[in-house]
Backbone:
């Protein structure tokens, strides 16, 4: 699986720790780390934007955030890319990306490699399970569409996610 790693953390140790753990799990990893003082920030962000389109999923070290990192995460969500937000334990902060089945948040400790490996492995399993590969068109009456829109809006998800959740719920019964 092709994984894009994003970070705005100044710590090379943290970035290398996470990317090496992803590589141990046998995934192709592209490191999209960027710093506030990068020389050619515009071209680097453009390159990362292209990488988001190619990626199967994103892993984001979000202990330190900035506007550009938030913009890239939002872009990934708009492109329906699964997103794992990692934050160091004790330094967690609330990141508001809305209710979305594609966004997962986890905290980690730098000195606990097996714990991080387990979290990344669980995320990759979920990505494989969530990957949407089949298109299905559905025609609805006005009343059913209105009901579907209301239910989806109440839950803060899309109509498609609402229908998917009903199917998954039915499969689990």
Residues:
């Amino acid at each position: 699986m092709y994984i894009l790693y994003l970070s705005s953390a100044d710590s090379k140790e943290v970035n290398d720790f996470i990317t090496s753990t992803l590589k141990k799990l046998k995934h192709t990893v592209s490191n999209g780390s960027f710093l506030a003082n990068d020389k050619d920030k515009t071209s680097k962000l453009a390159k990362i934007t292209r990488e988001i389109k190619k990626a199967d999923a994103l892993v984001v070290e979000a202990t330190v955030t900035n506007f550009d990192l938030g913009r890239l995460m939002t872009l990934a969500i708009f492109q329906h890319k699964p997103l794992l937000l990692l934050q160091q334990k004790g330094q967690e902060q609330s990141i508001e990306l809305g209710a979305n089945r594609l966004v997962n948040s986890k905290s980690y400790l730098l000195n606990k490699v097996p714990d991080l490996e387990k979290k990344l492995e669980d995320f990759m399993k979920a990505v494989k399970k969530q990957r949407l590969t089949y298109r299905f068109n559905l025609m609805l009456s006005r009343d059913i569409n209105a009901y579907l829109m209301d239910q989806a809006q109440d839950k803060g998800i899309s109509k498609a996610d609402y229908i998917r959740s009903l199917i998954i719920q039915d499969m689990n019964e």
Q: What stands out?
A: The two ends are 31 Å apart (CA to CA).
